[in-house]
Amino acid sequence: MVGVTRDARSDHRPRILAHYLAAAVAARLADEGARVCLVLLALRQTGSAGVGGAMIAALLVPHVVAAPLVGVVIDRARHPRWPLAAMVVIFATSLLLVGLLLGQAPLGLVFAILLVGGCCGPAITGGLTSQLPGLVGANRSPRAFGLDSFFYNVASMAGPAIAAVTAAAVNPVAAQCLLACSAVLGAVGIATLPIAAHQTQSGKARPSLLSGAREIMHQPRLRIVTITSTLGQIGPGALPVVAAVLATSVAKPASSGLLLATIAAGSLVGSLLWTWHPIAAHRAPLVTTVSMIGIGTPIAAAAATPSLAAAAVLFGVSGIFIGPFGSALFTARNQYATEANRTQVFTIGAGLKVTASAVGAALIGLVTTMPANALLLLVATSPILAGTLGTVLLTRHPTARNSRHVHEPRPASLPRSSQIGGFLDFWRSNCGFAGVRLSLPAAARRVTSNNSGSMNVPR
To answer: Which label site among 22, 155, 182, 220 has the fewest CB atoms less than 10 Å from its CB?
Structure first.
């Protein structure tokens, strides 16, 4: 019976993936849209944008605190879909209550409701993504992560747009209610996903609240990508503020939306490139760190151009690297986390990134009187430095280089040129850099080819 079940699931994997993506997008539309809608709601109901900013903080700050708890609840659950769906329903309820109560109830109560909803945020981000390998199979995971990253970017664009249009056409309360309904639809989709039940294993300790954090700190590659991706998010988290300052500095404040749209469009292209040609999973950590350098470098270059159009093009180039960065980060977490703690690793990583982004926005707010080009350099600094640090650690640190992948055996070490070559292979194959020659020893090429063949999905 087990074999029949697995064959049936294999036959329906494309449909299951589409089901997952629809549910995830519905939930994430609410998550992303709330960050705009709360400000509009506060302006209408209280007349204060500061209240809106505080409400957004109340929704985002709990991510990093609640992430381990959310992860352990899902990892311990016999049927993970139920706690996942329940947390999304709680998130939806918090949005609905805030929409109805703001201006009618004490602000303290409104903030408390948002804090509860924010504690469920990690389920919508890392909690959902961590379920993909079980739904599509290990060999299909890299491509599925690319699609997840692609549609996450779609939600990040469409959610705020839906909130703003609905608020303008009707009112912010209606927009908040619409986002809550979207989250409920996502919860229904999650509850009906065929997520496999966790098997109870006698003699093995259940995951604890700190199991995921310990695994991240003890597994060298997980530690490197988690720490560097968190540090690298501080600058990009401030980019919406800096884009507004840059557009205002050239007397075109409305163009800030264009700058952010080009980044989003670039990230969609990057996600599609990864989905079309995902690389071997054991190279994902290096793609993650080098992509951070690619995210920051065009933004730094934009500081040197006086043209807003040129800056927009460079923002788009930066966005192209965001796609493989997210997909490779998901793949690295999946590749090096044990199954028992996988959801915790995903939720902790996602919570740290959300918090780093919020910290970056808050810090840049203290120095917005600086010239726009100086702010762009500040934004670019964190991904460039974090990506460089991570790349050096992955290619030079013997523990990180020789750490074994927990799901399948692989050689203890490869020449450093083959590790760098893995990243260049991805960009050469996707972007047509046919002139790039990689100096790989013949033996290393054979090993690389064999390993990548076991993970890449046929095109």
So the answer is: 22
Q: Quick one: residue 79, left, alpha or beta (phi over 0 = left, psi -120 to 50 = alpha)?
A: beta
Domain that holds residue 110: 1-193
Beta strands in 82-239 (DSSP E): none
Torsion of CA 44, 49, 51, 56, to 10 degrees: 100
Total count of domains within the chain: 2
Judge if 459 and 313 occupy the same domain.
yes
Whether residue 326 is found in the same domain as residue 456: yes
The answer as to whether 209 is a domain residue is no
Q: At what angle do helices 342-365 and 220-232 cross, to 10 degrees?
A: 30
H-only helix segments in 102-195: 107-119, 121-122, 128-129, 132-136, 141-169, 172-191
Q: CA 380, CA 384: separation in Å to the nearest integer?
A: 6
Residue holding tokens 């449909």? 15
Q: In whole angstroms, what is the distance from residue 314 CA to residue 294 CA?
A: 11
Give yes or no: residues 135 and 260 share one domain. no
Nearest-5° angle of CA 162, CA 273, CA 450? 140
Residues 225 and 146 in one domain: no
Q: Which residues contact 383 (CB under 8 A, 6 or more apart)?
A: 232, 233, 235, 236, 292, 293, 295, 296, 299
Q: What is the pLDDT of residue 450?
A: 36
Distance, in Å, from the CA atom of 142 to the CA atom of 30, rounded to the nearest integer, reads 26
pTM of the model: 0.78
DSSP, collapsed to helix, strand or coil, labels residue 102 as strand
Tokens 């850099």 belong to residue:
433
Amino acid 399: pLDDT: 56
Q: Which two tokens stand for residue 63?
A: 């991510």
What is the structure's pLDDT at 205? Answer: 62
Task: Please give the average pLDDT of every successive group of 10 residues along the chain, which has 459 residues.
Answer: 45 84 96 89 86 86 89 89 96 96 93 95 92 86 90 89 90 95 97 83 65 90 94 91 85 79 91 88 92 96 90 94 93 89 91 89 84 93 96 78 46 42 50 38 36 33
From residue 282, how far is each of 33, 311, 443, 458 by CA, in Å?
Answer: 35, 34, 17, 18
Identify the pLDDT of residue 122.
93
